[in-house]
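The instructor's notes for this session suggest beginning with a concrete chain rather than abstract definitions. Hand out the sequence below and ask the class to guess, before any prediction is shown, which regions might be ordered.
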Amino acid sequence: KDDTSAQSGTYAVDSNLSVLGSEMTPASAVTFPTDVQVGSRAEITDSRKMYNYSQNENVITDGSYTVLKYTADGTFTPTSSFDVEYLVVAGGGSGGGTTSQVAGGGGAGGYATNFGGTGHAVTAQSYTITVGAGGASSGAGNNNGNSGGYSTFDTITMNGGGYGGKQSQTSGGSSATGSGGGGGWVSSAASSSGSYGNDGGYSISGIGALNSAAGGGGSGSAGQNGQASSVGGYGGDGTSNSITGSAVTYAVGGGGGGYGGTSGVGGAGGSSTTTSNGAADADSSNADSNTGNGSGGTGSNGTARASGSGGSGVVIIRFLTSGNTYTTSLTNTWQEIGS
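After discussion, reveal the predicted structure:
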């Protein structure tokens, strides 16, 4: 039906809502009703814009399971006790910057999952979800990268990946549970990692100390040391996970910077366009969002270079749909679909 009167309450499925704006109440200030049937339509008549009430794309139905994907901080509130599966990935570290040599790749964020294993019990209470940010860019110049932020769900806390080391004999940053960052020019020791990640590599005299920085550690393997050639060390491999219903690789280490040659690529599973190999004499690019990947280190022949940011983390919760009710901050929204 069409209902243009000033009313509130429950609207039938397929109702057409005409919200009248005015100079005193412009269309942009009109608040649409919430908690209506997904697929409903609304129109602001003074601007002729059409809206669709759409289900949040991060609330996923996978067969008999509901999957909640948190790409930012939020809440999950079961209304009864049941078991869930989870994936918690912290933010990845960023690679190091340089002015004239090479810098290490960022370490991957900590990676924890029980997908396909024993369920994790939740009860009727509100659980705060924290999603770690990726480490910020190193900035142009001889600078260490930055560590990623932590991610949490219930009792599970994963620390961010360690930073990539700058050019001046600097090892990469360590991480309490994530992966360590790769070392820069003439770093003498690998960075340490926690039980949910791997070490970043190092680059010592005799194995290309001036030419090749080390890769950051990944959830699947350690970062490669600097090489005898001008090729930067590879980042550590990530880990594939299908908790959303599709296989995605998370927590890949960033490649080390190379001088006058080719930089190391990110570990296996990283995006070819954003995992970021600090290219020779170039800034490295940002790692993919919501993966926990580290960004690449940089290489330079005299120009100050900056790394991209590390990839932000993600928290994913999966449980049987039947009989398990909940509320979440992942709300449905009105989306403009045309005018």
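Then share the key points. The first strand starts at residue 2 and ends at 3. The CA atoms of residues 134 and 312 lie 4 Å apart.
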